[in-house]
């Protein structure tokens, strides 16, 4: 009963902390009403005048989520089947995020947002498969 399953360690579990923190950030941002979000847009438009909305935020947010999940998994994430799992997990979280938004004033679920979430996650997993990127990444996330 006191035995810990093979391969499990508290340190290993801590590697998923960045993913949990980032999921919390996504949740908090999704809790903002459309009026609150639109107050941030002029600030970003001073740096990126071409910005018309926050659709790019889905790409970036789920790119980072996939990266943090990859970090938690470690070198096993280099396997193709694990890359698929990472993208699926990000997609499932994106679906729950859109459902959550249905309860927030001025916000509504949008399938295109989930598509953008999946694209962001897939871009990370594809980049992480590039040999010279993977080699550097595994030094930071063995």
TrEMBL record:
It comes from the Bacteria. Keywords: Membrane, Transmembrane, Transmembrane helix. The keyword Membrane applies. The chain crosses the membrane at residues 12-30, 56-73, 80-96, 116-133. Residues 18-129 form the VanZ-like domain. NCBIfam families: vanZ_1. This is VanZ family protein. The lineage of its organism: Bacteria, Bacillati, Bacillota, Bacilli, Bacillales.
